[in-house]
Amino acid sequence: MWRKFSTFFYLYLDKIKLYIKIIKERFNNMEVKVKKLPTRCPSCGAVLEITELKCPKCGTVIRGNFPISKFLSLDSENLEFLVAFLKSRGNLKEVQERLGISYPTVKAKLEKLLGALGLSEESKPLDKMEILRALEKGEISAKEAINILKGESKNGKCGGR
Hints:
Blueprint: H1 2-28, E1 49-54, E2 61-67, H2 76-87, H3 92-99, H4 103-116, H5 128-137, H6 142-155
Antiparallel strand pairs: 1-2
Helix pairs in contact: 2-3, 2-4, 3-4, 5-6
């Protein structure tokens, strides 16, 4: 009797461990689904301001001019990178593994994020040969190289490189 119970118990315990593992994996791989707040006027393109806040529970309304946070202005690519960076507690190697991209791409994305938040230092001009060497070594893909070079065409620099 005891043998049947212990066998049943351990089988049941293994199932519970499996379910916990599946739940943890799903939780860690959850995507950030945030409704994008408009930050620019659709008519003239000026930066919008928040002028009213309302409590959904009691109905209290606060009026004023509240600037939109730089974090709310991030595009989905920068937001995805920021979440991965925070989940990895700033460990760039872990960000690389989590997003499945090369280390130079992680660094370029970090510089792009810092630039979008207005936190990047003065960047040096892009060295195209450095990009071509990284592409040749397989450190970055052709698509990544194109994206980095396109970044140069917008502002003469490459994501802070």
